[in-house]
Amino acid sequence: MPIDREFLDQCQSLFEPGMGTESAAFLLYGAVRMARPRTVLEVGLGYTTPFLTRALADAQEEFAEDRRLLAGSAKDERRLEVLIPPYYRQDYRPLYYAVDDFSLEDSSARRVVEVLERLGLAGMVDLHDGDFRGYSQELKSRTLPLDFVWFDCGGPRDYVDFIEEYWPLINPHHGLLALHFTYWTVEMRRGGETLPAIISSPIIDEIKRQQAVSGIAARFEMLSLVEPHKSRQGSVTLVRKLSPQSVCRNRDFAGEMTRLFGGGWRSFPDLD
User: Fold this and answer.
1) From the centroid of its chain, how far is CA 42?
2) 167 three-class SS
3) Count of alpha carbons within 13 Å of 136, Cβ hemisphere only?
4) Contact 102, 88 (CB under 8 A)
5) pTM, whole model, 2 decimals?
6) Which of 100, 125, 172, 256 is positioned for an S-S bond with 251, CB 3.0–4.6 A?
7) DSSP one-letter string for 71-125
8) What is the C-alpha to C-alpha distance for residues 245 and 56, in angstroms, rounded to an integer?
């Protein structure tokens, strides 16, 4: 059952305007559907939890349908054209771990399990009631690496603690880390007025700095999406680990295209 009115109505009881995840939930759903992660970790339950769970369930259904197509049990030539048959040799049974210590009073975390049960999705989530710190030791005895991680918990110290402990556990082959509330609103003087300005938080600035220092050899890439109408909780940053095949090759576009397809290619526009 993909996202529909019934699903949204069930999730509505988890929505807290101050948490700022009304758009992030759809972003996470789409990212999981695209990436098809096999192991997912969420820290900080709430409105996003059923979206992540629904995405995994829908990805599982899509995987099964693709397998039927490849086996000749169904017909869809256009779909078959885009599939990579070897990908389907391994079963797709995603694991989803969710962590929360339920200490935040205005959070909807405590109502999540009830909503998942009504949606028939509760069996997909392995819930840990406690601090995320140290929980990685329990995950190490299960299935690693982590393919998709959504962290939405606490302040800057919590983010630093989490990244220090969990970044090494994220899949080096395109594992994805999603962080919430990564851009902050500050007051700045412009044109003689004091106006609000949205800037990258020190955490995101540090990730940018490390990426810049690594240069073309950087083993990760990042993208931040910012909601310009919000003073807080209005940003998500995606940090994606790069496999050796995805690290920058440092080759000129026109030259590489010429080697691949022959001459006639113009230089790529300068973006800086």
Assistant:
1) 10
2) helix
3) 15
4) no
5) 0.94
6) 256
7) TTSS--HHHHHH--GGGGGS----EEEEEE----TT--GGGHHHHHHHHT-GGGE
8) 26
